[in-house]
Specification:
heterodimer, A: about 260 residues, mainly alpha, Helix Hairpins, rod-shaped, B: about 120 residues, alpha/beta, Rossmann fold, five-stranded parallel β-sheet, Chemotax_Pase_CheZ (chain A), EC 3.1.3.- (chain A)
Chain lengths: ~260, ~120
């Protein structure tokens, strides 16, 4: 960079020097000399632009290689980092979906066991209270004793199953570790890509400066990404509590709707 | 009571389906976006629609507008269950004629409250 700056300085001092000489030769009426100086200025600029463009082309090439966004076909079977990241994120989606389904399977499997315990406890309780109030015949009591025995043995078996299911639900959360690692790597890649793109932008601005190109400033509203229709939706809001235009919870939604007469 | 659940994520559809079953609503059907949901609503005698907002194909807000524009469906109660949390969006949904709005993540209690409230109003 330092070398680059000194070259730019050389070019600028040549420019200043020649400009001064140009003015003085024009003032003294020496037009031949003036034309010669203009020609020299032109050559100096051309030479500088060629040298800079050559250098920038090399840097641009290096930056693109760094980004690894070229098609996988060119370098055999190896995936570019971007398509690798895409694959990794799809893996996260798969893992989280699998874990959610596994958890729901186990919950659905456990629900009937809990229902049985709840239903049968209620029913036995009623009969047990009748027995305690001595409102039960001996035959009825023998029937109740049998039901209690069934209930106890099934209770043992079901509680075993329930604790297994709870453990499996716990284990189904192991995706968090794996998906966390994947997401961290993708985040790192995005940061690298961002800084490489920034370098590219700086290079492009240098080319503009040497070639004397000017751009109309683009206001953020004009970029197509911002013109997204609100009906498309935006997905979850990450910093809801720090934003005025976003609700942070259901109470906020209810307040807003009731203020609208809901 | 026949309910259509519209969400592009099958896990979310399953969660809502389970919560509805706990509330005593066992007759449910599922669709993964507005484009598949609309013909189902038009031919299926549904009594209630629960929809997400952000979906590929036809979004929930567009589905809501299509329902309100359809003479046979315009009275159908619609509950939006969505991660969309901008004030403007909630106002937009209210203006489009939504009957209830639940932001994700939500609890079983909130879902029950909103459904009860909608039926109180519909039946009252």
């Amino acid at each position: 960079m330092a070398k680059n700056d000194s070259e730019t300085g050389d070019f600028e001092s040549t420019l200043k020097q020649h400009a001064r000489e140009l003015v003085s030769s024009l003032e003294s009426g020496n037009f031949g000399e003036a034309v010669h100086l203009i020609h020299q200025l032109d050559q100096a600029r051309d030479l500088h632009v060629y040298r800079e463009v050559g250098k920038l082309t090399r840097e641009l090439h290096n930056a693109i290689v760094g980004l690894q966004i070229d098609s996988p076909g060119e370098h055999g079977k190896e995936l570019s980092q971007i398509s690798d990241a895409t694959d990794r994120l799809s893996y996260v989606v798969q893992m989280t979906e699998k874990a959610a389904n596994r958890t729901m399977d186990l919950v659905e499997e456990s629900a009937p066991l809990v229902n049985y315990i709840s239903y049968e406890s209620q029913s036995l309780m009623v009969d047990w209270q009748r027995f305690m109030r001595r409102e039960m015949s001996a035959d009825e009591f023998r029937e109740l004793a049998k039901r209690i025995e069934t209930y106890l043995s099934r209770g043992l078996q079901d509680s075993d199953q329930l604790s297994k299911n709870l453990n499996e639900i716990l284990l189904a959360q192991d995706f968090q570790d794996l998906t966390g690692q994947v997401i961290k790597r993708v985040t790192q890649l995005i940061t690298t890509v961002e800084s490489d793109l920034l370098k590219l932008m700086l290079m492009a601005s240098k080319v503009d400066r040497y070639a004397g190109i000017r751009h109309e400033p683009v206001t953020p509203e004009e970029t197509p990404a911002k013109q997204k229709k609100s009906s498309q939706g935006e997905g979850p809001q990450i910093h809801a509590d720090k934003r005025e235009d976003v609700v942070s919870n259901q109470d906020d939604v209810d307040d807003l709707l009731s203020s609208l007469g809901f | 009571m026949k309910i259509l659940i519209v969400d592009d994520f099958s896990t979310m559809r399953r969660i809502i389906k389970n919560l509805l079953r706990d509330l005593g609503f066992t007759n449910t059907a599922e669709a993964d976006d507005g484009t598949t949901a609309l013909p189902m609503l038009q031919s299926g005698n549904f009594d209630f629609l629960v929809t997400d907002w952000n979906m590929p194909g036809m979004t929930g807000i567009d589905l809501l507008r299509a329902v309100r524009a359809d003479d046979r469906l315009k009275q159908l109660p619609v509950l939006m269950v969505t991660a969309e949390a901008k004030r403007d969006q909630i106002i937009e949904a209210a203006q489009a004629g939504v009957n209830g709005y639940v932001v994700k993540p939500f609890t079983a209690q909130v879902l029950k409250e909103k459904i009860d409230k909608i039926f109180e109003r519909v039946n009252g």
